[in-house]
Each structure stands twice: as C-alpha cells, then as structure tokens.
C-alpha cells in the first residue's frame, strides 16, 4: 500500500512561472461570527495550509486579513510563503479596480497572488435601499436574474489584465477565471485585444462530477484547474458516498484524504472548507492512486449537484 504524503507540500507551476499550492483553504459560507473565520484561518496555516481562497462575495476578507496580520506578527509565516486568491463578482464586471482595491484593503495586503473573474457574467450594481448593501444577485419582479444588456463578460478579464500587466503596479501576481466553459475560453482566446492566457480556471469538481472536458482543455492550454466544492459543498455529501467510505477503509485514509488524493492525482488544486478547526487534520494528506480508482471516483453516481 502506498504511503501517505503531505498535500500541503505540493505545488504546481503556473503559466507565468509562479507557483501555486495544490491544497487551499476554502472560505465560502463564513459564519456570522467572524472571529470563527479568523481562528480557522490561523489554525489552517498552523496546520500547514499555505493557500487561502476567498472572494469579494464571501464578505470575510477583513477577518482573513486580521488572521494573516496575527500570523505575520507571531512569525508563523512570512507573506511570501502564502498564496492568497480573491475574486471579482459580476456586479463589478466593469469596475474591477473598485472591487479589487476593496478586497486588498480588507485583506490588509500589499499584493494578492491570484485574482479571478468569479463568473463570466455581468450583473448591474444595485444597492438595497434598506440595508445599503450591494445586491449580489439582482433579480427582477419575476425573480429572473438581471444581467446587464450589451455588456461583454470579457471586459472583466481585460480590466484585470490591465492591472496585472502594468509594470508600475505590483498588486496582482497572477490572474485567472472561474466558472469558464470551453466556449468561454475560446471566446477569450479569439479576442485580439487580450494578451494573456489565464493562469487558473476555478470550477466545480467533486466525486461524480469530474468535468473531464474542461479539465482536459485547460490542462492542454497550460491553465491550472482548481476544483471548488470538492466535498460536495454544504454538509459534505461527497464524503458520505458509500464508494468514498469503502475506499477510505481499503486505502487506510480519511474520507477527506480520499477526495484530496482524487484531486492531486489529476493535477488539480483542491480548496476544501471547514469552520471546525478539529476537522483540519483530516484534510492534509493524500496518496498516489491507480487510474482505475480515479475512474471509479469520477463515475460514481451522485444525487447532489
Ligand atoms: N469559484 C466559485 O464559484 C466557487 C468557489 N468556491 C470555493 O470552494 C470552496 C469549497 O467549497 P464549499 O462550498 O465551501 O464546500 P466543500 O465542498 O469544501 O464542503 C464543505 C462542507 O464539508 C464539510 N466538511 C469539511 N470537512 C469535513 C470533515 N472532516 N468531516 C465532515 N464534514 C466536513 C463542511 O462542514 C462543509 O459543510 C469554498 O469555500 C470557496 O472558497 C465555492 C463555490 C463556488
Ligand atoms: O463562490 C461562490 O459560491 C456561491 C455558491 O456556490 C456561488 O454562487 C459562487 O460562485
């Protein structure tokens, strides 16, 4: 039986020469008590995580920034040892500077390692009259999501690229996309005003949802793929699948480690999330797996998205 390996030590080379840790800490669905976010980020870094995945949408960047400041002050890690990702939500499709500079300020950093266009979509920027907050997913009277007319989602990538390529601006180390299909990427490659190839595409991947077509396309183009919702999101349904439990026993790993192994054997980045620090040790290791097991996990039948 193959030995357990430390997933926090695995890095991938991006198409611009930078390195990206294969295991990241997801931070969606933050609890209302933001001190939990801060404590979990500190615990994740102390456990070995060197990559944190956040977004303007998640509204937890300030707590993550507080955690990072504490880790730097205590000498646990240096800034250059961490890889921090944030994202630009579709309300800011043509206001990337506004979104990104707010994220950077909240994260209390001088630079971010990776900024992603969160979705290939353009939403209007509407403020709720009562709360004063941005309506992240605006809907009309019939409940349909409102999209900006005559707007091009490539505009967001172009604005990100402008900041990234500016020689006098050192705030973004790499840029990428999220939720891009093969057609979206082909659109991007066809645009003669775009000079770069995204370094990363972050998409939904978990057991039973292998996303082979887009993964193969990205890997052929040298784009690193990050899989989100690796445990199947809320409640971790992928961890409860009979196949994953059987493999956990057979391979002498936690169910989480089986899923991490599935990702790392496919050269994918994985960004699982937990808001319970005691669960962190279950999501740190992986093993080399034979192709047949990868295929079994890819093809398992699931009843969740
Ligand atoms: N780019 C995008 O559009 C999206 C990106 N993401 C990113 O991906 C990350 C991961 O996805 P999530 O939706 O957060 O879900 P996930 O797939 O990481 O699963 C989280 C669930 O698994 C449970 N879990 C974790 N460890 C466990 C353990 N040891 N035992 C039992 N249960 C456990 C958690 O309690 C939680 O309910 C996000 O936090 C976010 O950073 C998520 C959704 C969309
Ligand atoms: O990051 C994200 O999380 C939510 C829920 O999955 C999704 O809308 C967004 O892309």
UniProtKB/TrEMBL annotation:
PANTHER family: ALDO/KETO REDUCTASE. InterPro entries: AKR, Aldo/ket_reductase_CS, NAD(P)_OxRdtase_dom_sf, NADP_OxRdtase_dom. The active site is at residue 58. This is D-arabinose dehydrogenase [NAD(P)+] heavy chain. The keyword tRNA-binding does not apply. Substrate binds at residue 118. SUPFAM superfamilies: NAD(P)-linked oxidoreductase (SSF51430). The lineage of its organism: Eukaryota, Fungi, Dikarya, Ascomycota, Saccharomycotina. Transmembrane segments: none annotated. The record marks 87 as: Lowers pKa of active site Tyr. GO terms for molecular function: oxidoreductase activity, acting on the CH-OH group of donors, NAD or NADP as acceptor. Keywords: Oxidoreductase. Gene3D superfamilies: NADP-dependent oxidoreductase domain (3.20.20.100). Residues 24-299 form the NADP-dependent oxidoreductase domain.
